[in-house]
């Protein structure tokens, strides 16, 4: 967890989407600015990553929860998206089912987290660029969902990095704008801070192995 | 002697170490000094001993010669006395001769006595020398053991110099060491030394040239960052030193003994097996022990289904509707199980095919559970040590016997229940931590769910 300094803002973001939609790749591409040839392990439960960005003169710490896409983990997703200020709904541009899943998640979020802003994100854009026929859902259909959700729509590629930064920067700047517009809002209860553990407590890198 | 030299070098080089381990170095230097003194003393004592032994052997030779001479003279005395008796006439001259001979005999006997004393004295001297020699050897052994401990402490210290500047991901880790190249040089030297005993250890050169090192489990390691490379090498060295340490040897011995006695029925001796397993199963027994424990757990199912069950399931896979239901998800996860392991990194390789067979076979074996992400890690782990059939039974044992039947079901009810139990336990046993997590609104299962589901696959270092 990034240590929060005075004046910095915490922002909880959750990534939701069907298995193999490329959620982990998107997060890793953004956080590490690279795409590796070796695949990532499939995610169990959820993985956490964080990044620090500066927008409108404010430093925002993005706490990103990268959830598992597998159906079975759906019932547990609530613990990951609870209190999230932004959700990135990922769907694979070449997989029709994954778009249906994105739709499912949007419903789920509107019911349980009405204050969470939704960002629709079609992944694997590079594959559609190479082979336009592989696009699984008509653009109009995707746009109409985006309109319904009053959500931004991005088409990203973690391979080339296309639009990856844009998604997260937009999330961060929307967040800061919202706070500026509501100056009286109390600090959100879901932002948290872990005090630096003392030496004895922290195991961190296991030295005995 | 080679070892002593090496440790001496090690100790001498300790003198030039940085302040971070000053205290250790001071006493290392002291040890080195002591060791050198002792060694010198030992050499001079050995010289002395050799000289004395030389002298002793020449005395003994002399003694033998003298004794020969005495025997010879005694013989002559006998014959001459006989001849004297015969020749009664020449009594005078012979009695004079007799006196001379008796005189000589007396002298020789004296000499003999003296030499015998001398031999005894020398033997005593030799004895004391030998004792001091043993003592010195003992001292050297203690010092060497101490040096081994220092080495382990040193690599552990370096390992613990790792920092995570942004605080959250392993990728950002950096190793912070002071003293320039000093530690790199020392670790290289330690590695060279260790490689003489264990040639499977990587070399600094190969890894720093971006070559890929494959560890004993088949995991590939490649390093872009020099300091992380050092960290990895220290990890390998620490593992090596631990495997050389006496306590580890003792543990190995206990295992060997246990396996010799109960090697065919490990599961029926849980009382002895449990503490042994907690100390770690040696790699050479892992397959055997896992296999037997799994078979023991699945005994009833195995008896019911017969010996060819797995093979039958596999042969029906291609046209099984149950398998096809999960085929896509499984095939997506095959390459995402252990991407950094050579056995699971190429599509179509044996490891990948086995993984696929086992996971699909399980879907047919238990359609209510089917495939759940996380199973792939359990099977992958099992396949590192066992064949496909035993890996299949491992999954059966985990999903149906060790865990409740609902653990991996459609809603992961069992797994969720376990998380609840863990939370309750935490509240009960570690109330302070529990209250802290509540206060900062952290859901414990966001951290622990995958520990349980994949049995700590990703949560602890692999060799543990």
Describe the structure.
- The complex is a heterodimer of chains A (209) and B (464).
- Chain A has 209 residues and is an alpha/beta fold.
- Chain A contains 6 helices and 6 strands, in the order E-H-E-E-H-E-H-E-H-H-E-H.
- In chain A, helix 3 links the parallel strand 4 and strand 5.
- Chain B has 464 residues and is an all-alpha fold.
- Chain B has 4 domains: 2-10 and 27-144, Helix Hairpins (Orthogonal Bundle); 162-244, no CATH class; 282-404, putative rabgap domain of human tbc1 domain family member 14 like domains (Helicase, Ruva Protein, domain 3); 411-464, no CATH class.
- In chain B, helix 16 crosses helix 17 (431-439).
- The chains are: A alpha/beta (209), B mainly alpha (464).
Structure summary, number of beta strands of chain B: 4
Describe the main β-sheet of chain B briefly: 2 strands, antiparallel
Distance between the termini of chain A: 24 Å
Distance between the termini of chain B: 35 Å
Characterize the largest beta sheet of chain A: strand count, sense, and whether it forms a barrel.
6 strands, mixed
Order of helices and strands of chain B: HHHEEHHEEHHHHHHHHHHHHH
User: Looking at the structure, what is the overall shape of chain A?
Assistant: globular
Rounded average pLDDT of chain A: 83
- The CATH topology assignment of chain A is Rossmann fold
Radius of gyration of chain A: 18 Å
Strand content of chain A: 15-25%
- Taken in chain order, the helices and strands of chain A follow as EHEEHEHEHHEH
What's the architecture of chain A in CATH terms? 3-Layer(aba) Sandwich
Domain unit count of chain A: 1
Quick one: which chains have the greatest interface?
A-B, 43 and 50 residues
Strand ordering within the main sheet of chain A = 2-3-1-4-5-6
Total count of helical runs of at least 4 residues of chain B? 18
Instruction: Summarize the amount of helix of chain A as a percent range.
Output: 25-40%
Keywords (chain B): Coiled coil
Pfam families (chain B): RabGAP-TBC
Protein name (chain B): TBC1D2B
Coiled coil (chain B): 28-55, 98-153
